[in-house]
Amino acid sequence: MREGQAAVIHRADYQPPAFWIDTVELCFDLDPAKTRVLNRMRLRRNPDVPVQPLRLDGEELNLARVLVGGQGTSFKLEGGQLVLENLPEGHEPFELEIFTTCAPAKNTKLMGLYVSNDSFFTQCEAEGFRRITYFLDRPDVMASYTVLLRADRRRYPVLLSNGNLVDQGELEDGRHYAKWVDPHRKPCYLFALVAGQLVCREQRIASRSGQEHLLQVYVRPGDLDKTEHAMNSLIDSVAWDEARFGLPLDLERFMIVATSDFNMGAMENKGLNIFNTKYVLASQSTATDTDYANIESVVGHEYFHNWTGNRVTCRDWFQLSLKEGLTVFRDQEFSQDLAGEASARAVKRIEDVRVLRTAQFPEDAGPMAHPVRPDQYLEINNFYTVTVYEKGAEVVRMMYTLVGRDGFRRGMQLYFQRHDGQAVTCDDFAQAIADANPGSKLAELLPQFKRWYSQAGTPRVQASARWDAAAGTYTLTLGQTCPPTPGQPVKEPVVIPVAYGLLDDQGRELASGLHVLTQASETLSFQGLQAEPVPSLLRGFSAPVVLEFDYGDAQLLALLAHDTDPFNRWEAAQRLALARALRFVAQPHEPVALDAPFVDAMRGILRHPTLDAAFKELVLTLPSETYIAEQLEVVDPPRIHAVREAMRQQLAQALQADWEWAWEAHQVGGAYRPDPVSSGRRALAGLALTHLCLAARASADPVWPGKAYQRFKDASNMTDRFNALSALVVSGHELARPALQRFHAMFKDEALVLDKWFALQAGAPDRGGNVLPAVRQLMQHPDFNIRNPNRARSLIFSYCSANPGAFHRPDAAGYVFWSERVMELDAINPQVAARLARALDRWNKLAEPLRGAAREAIARVAAKPDLSNDVREIVTRALAD
């Protein structure tokens, strides 16, 4: 193996470090080919650990000098570690100096110190700091940092690191320096360095206490006009965290820097957040409403880490959800609070649940299933997952539900009171929330509740009802089970908050409440009812479970028409559509024909006089192919694709007049604003245009494709322009080709817009196997660069991971393409390759011959002798499934 045979790391084996590092002084002489790093540390032995050698992590470093107390010392390099045995005895601090060099220009992994567009950047989470200098690269070692940066002034006029700028000046030979001191102790994964030709947008703000802060957003020259929304989002984040949780900004300045070469979305380095340009740059001509919403969310997420992740950090990487699950919950609440109005909040909640169901539920059911707090890993980068993030957020949300808004704020205050400046565990967080609310259900049930952290898999709640007309009694029985997952064949009952309501046939609410399900089976009884009610269960998606209830069409139509809970109203539409899709999939020789009640219900939602446009768009969007597949024991992706496309085609034709009305009625005039109301109107108009182009495809009517092409040319914002382009591509109209060519010509110098162009073509509906040849051709395009993670994701991931109908080809050519790309990327950037490798996680559910062909492709990757640990862990676990 290229990285050596890595050992599996177990949570149960955690040991505190043998040494603490109190202070770190780093001096960088920055050069793309050979950067010199002088690392002076003050260390001391941990008195709670037996005496042992100091083992410092290092990777791809050239070691030049090691001094202890200013004197040379013996050392050895052993398994990627620098081992020092002849160190001062006792527990007094001592000085250690290490001088190394590295080659940032050759660092294609984008971990540690690397070069992108002639600028220096760092990414140290999870284990990238060891690629900068030898260090105790673990999150429970927290130190104070002083950083001196030296570089050529002309090439690198901006020199940034964490904390406060305390000194800067000129050096000989056209060089200059900047000295930064971070006032807060931090683990090394939060270290950051940036140097390059950058410009910045600045804004001074005052906190509630009156303290002034400087906010800065750094970008490449030419992109400054696209930073206003990111800055506004940062200002909103600072104000929200102080107002909602009493957490003020604790730094003189807070910086965001954008780079186009980044493995992740963004990184919360203390005071110096480094972002993928995708989550910073936005203008109405280059970014969609979705881009604006994502920027707001990600800027909020990284800023909120300043407290939940930075001030209190993880004891070890198994506790990753301590910061990520909590901070995802916080960014979700932030976006909902900014949305304001109830229906806009519901839209955000539905969007979050869709991610959970289409990404996390399959992960829970596949070979990479793991608890929110994993028990073991081979490569930690593989556990930055939707389970740790999104399911982790749902676990926090259930705590919030069980203690209430005020109780949760009290719990957060106690958490920081106890643990500020510490590296702690998920147990510490849960204990703080419970202890702050001693009379709550959470406090009462805490040991059982914490099974959410230790058990993998998605619990299933089985609900059944019995109506006794004579007695006027409605009995609801709730049960819970959880299927086995790798390494966990038996599951214990968990704590499941079930929000519910009962409706009569006119939609009036007869009862509502929250039942906390803790046993394998429990029964609720409701007395004094005049007629059998319709149950509305798991309102607001009150727990991350699969609800199994044998709803009839009449009940679902009643919920769709009347439920006061917006989530369950949407859910009713999803269940109606899903039931039909599954029936059609199971009957391959029968025509796909939507029934009148379903079509009429969709028309009723589309024409509804008071429902929010964004909510209508969600209701009228059919369940995804991935979600449909997860309901089946044996999966035939091309069949699912054909069924969903046929259903969409029928909705297009049956509701053509209604779609025309929706298009005309939801145009947005005036200046562009990405607010929820305007965005919702554009989203519904875009959905309408797609359906109108689909209807035109069936009738060969050129009118609506012509209107779409005209809108594409004339649009005043990227949302409308891209919606029109997408409508042409999705409908397969001949105007799509000139529109795509024109789009490329218009935006050939806008990297993020070109990512959309690549992704749209790779994600297009497959017609006769046409998508894969197009993808292979696009890989030869001058603007395609597989070394850039955004570009690789836009084309390769959009095809392999997001277009199942085109990827799972009967001739297995999609799997061959996948295996080639995984191995190609693995030699460049193992993190990106490992994410792509996850595209075949669920191969075991595929119908033959797809199943055998997929397994063969995975085995082909696994047989590669110099595979990275990142990819090897994924494919090995997949083959063991």
UniProtKB/TrEMBL annotation:
Keyword Hydrolase in annotation: yes
Leading EC class: hydrolase
Domain Aminopeptidase N-like N-terminal: 91-190
Keyword Zinc: yes
Residue ranges of domain Peptidase M1 alanyl aminopeptidase Ig-like fold in the record: 457-549
GO BP annotations, alphabetical order: proteolysis
Catalytic reactions on record: Release of an N-terminal amino acid, Xaa-|-Yaa- from a peptide, amide or arylamide. Xaa is preferably Ala, but may be most amino acids including Pro (slow action). When a terminal hydrophobic residue is followed by a prolyl residue, the two may be released as an intact Xaa-Pro dipeptide
Keywords from the named record: Aminopeptidase, Hydrolase, Metal-binding, Metalloprotease, Protease, Zinc
Residues of the Peptidase M1 alanyl aminopeptidase C-terminal domain: 553-880
Record-listed E.C. numbers: 3.4.11.2
Cofactor(s) needed by this chain: Zn(2+)
Domain Peptidase M1 membrane alanine aminopeptidase: 230-445
GO MF term set: alanyl aminopeptidase activity; metallopeptidase activity; zinc ion binding
Protein family membership: Belongs to the peptidase M1 family.
NCBIfam families linked to this entry: pepN_proteo
Name of the protein in its database record: Aminopeptidase N
Gene: pepN
